[in-house]
Structures are given as C-alpha cells and as structure tokens.
Amino acid sequence: ILNVEQSPQSLHVQEGDSTNFTCSFPSSNFYALHWYRWETAKSPEALFVMTLNGDEKKKGQISATLNTKEGYSYLYIKGSQPEDSATYLCAFHDNDYKLSFGAGTTVTVRA
Amino acid sequence: TAGITQAPTSQILAAGRSMTLRCTQDMRHNAMYWYRQDLGLGLRLIHYSNTAGTTGKGEVPDGYSVSRANTDDFPLTLASAVPSQTSVYFCASSRDAHNEQFFGPGTRLTVL
Question: CB–CB of A102/A4 below 8 Å?
Fold first, then answer.
C-alpha cells in the first residue's frame, strides 16, 4: 500500500478567488503522477498525467506542478468558478504500473 | 461512442450470494481495472489486467476474482458476498498500463 496523501481534505473558495492544494507521494519507484477531477454523481475524469520532475501542465484555469525528488505535486485553480466544485484526486503511478489514489481534496466554490 | 459501461447500475445482494459485475469498453484499450470507493478511503484497486489474457491483484483483492478473456470485457465476481463488500465499484480502462484511465459510471452494491 503506497502512501499518497492529499491536503487539505476539503476547502471552500469564494467565486473568483484562486486556490491550490497538495498531493504528496513516495519519491522512489516513480513513473507518473495523475490528477483526476471527480464531480458529484459522475465518474473521475483525467486532468493531467505528469512524468518529469519540474513538469507543469495547464488545462484552462487549472494547472499542476510536479516535484518528483521531494514527492509532491500542487494543483492550482485560478479564478475559481462554481463549475470547478469537485473532488480532485491525485494518483501515484509506480514502475509496476499500479495506480494508488489519494483520498482527494473536495473543493466547493461559493457564488 | 459508449466508452466504458458497467452493469448493473445498482444491486442489493443477500450475504452469501454470488454476483458478477460487468464492465465493457469499446476503445480497444489494453489495460482494465476494478476499484472500490469507500467513504474516506478514496479509490482502492481490486484487480487489474494489463492485456487480454492476464490479470493481477491490486490492493484489496480478497473475496473478488476477475477474468480477461478478450480485450473488451473485464467482469468482477464476488463468489460469496459479505456486508463489507458494500461499496461503489468503478471499472476503468487505459490504452496501456501507463496512460490516463477512463472510468465507467460505477455500480452501487449493497450486501445485506
């Protein structure tokens, strides 16, 4: 069982504000770090797959950074909108290709 | 395209009974996965298959079995259900074992 931790567990953001949260993962046996977005009553959808130390990915107002040496990734939401409300999951992909998920950060954007 | 489908959507099952959860994908993905989602624990991998004809155990495989007779289908069987198997089950697939995963809509299973 791999230790993938996300913090905070939940956060509330005012519409228009920016926010960020963390995923920490083992720094050894690293293959990739995935981010998924999971809206209520839907299925998780992939946001990013990051493989290189220092990688930065962006999709719309959501971006992510990766530090494999220290074992963490940040996800940023710029100018949060109500439709950004979701649970954001990170998942550590090891060299055996197994994916271990964190418990998620639930973001609620208040209008 | 349908993508990845699961059946049934939900099921109530008596303890001790057997049940097969179905998962089918039409994306010709090589890898498929079964997860269970429990409150506060996130998604936990039950079994996986990197290619048709092969399967492997995930984090919580006990009480479950899988088969991968072809590329498209990856059924999950509970031979003798127990209440602790009450959960939401998600099937997923990816082009290969190291790519992003695509998730099905989930099956909500209640074992009484």
Answer: yes
Q: Does A93 touch chain B (CB under 8 A)?
A: yes
User: B42, exposed or middle or buried, with CB in 10 Å at 0-12, 13-18, 19+?
Assistant: buried
Under DSSP, is residue B11 helix (H, G, I), strand (E, B) or coil? strand
Instruction: State the residue for tokens 């089918």.
Output: B24
Q: What is the per-residue pLDDT across A21-75, written as a single tens digit (0 to 9) for each?
A: 999 999 888 999 999 999 998 999 999 999 999 999 999 999 999 999 999 999 9
**Is the backbone peptide bond immediately before A26 cis, with ω within 30 degrees of 0?**
no
Query: What DSSP character marks residue A60?
Result: T
**What are the tokens at A102?**
């964190």
Subunit contact B42:A89, Cβ cutoff 8 A:
yes
Tokens at residue B34, please?
Answer: 């079964």
